[in-house]
Amino acid sequence: MANPLQEQLLKAGLASKKQAKKAEHEKRISRKQNNGNSSAVIAGKAREEQAVKDQRNRELNRERAEETRRREIKAQVKQLIETNRLPKDDRGEPYNFVEQNKIKRIFVSEEMTDQLSRGQLAIVKLGVGYEVVPGKVAHQIASRDKEAVVVFHEKP
User: Fold this and answer.
1) Closest among 71, 151, 82, 73 to 119, alpha carbons compared
2) SS3 state at 142
3) CA 117-103-141 angle, 5° bins
4) CA-CA distances (angstroms) from residue 24 to 15, 45, 84?
5) Are 124 and 148 in contact (CB under 8 A)?
6) 131-144 per-position pLDDT tens digit
């Protein structure tokens, strides 16, 4: 027997060998049951951690997909503008417009000024500059990115 208290109780006659064996047996059984429960608890914790990890991975994948979609839309808008932009006339008349409470100016021909005011043409933002595009293209751009279209006098 490794328990000094148990040995002292046996020597003093306060406990019998039968009681000591019974106590030792109960101790072993309780240890085994705790080990069984702890493995179940550990497995439950592992499942919870895996579920949290899976949820986080799904969220990250959703964010990546959203970012990819935004980049694709920006690329589509850029391509639409670059392929359909009309040439500017630096010697033409200035066309003033407002963007974010600031007055901006672009030089276009007299005919383009008239078409801009009738809604046949639109001014769109490309990078830091501005381009003039046909009204149909402005509708396509607005369906993808409304903020890219700066001036478009649509007919109601």
Assistant:
1) 151
2) helix
3) 55
4) 13, 31, 90
5) yes
6) 999 999 999 999 99
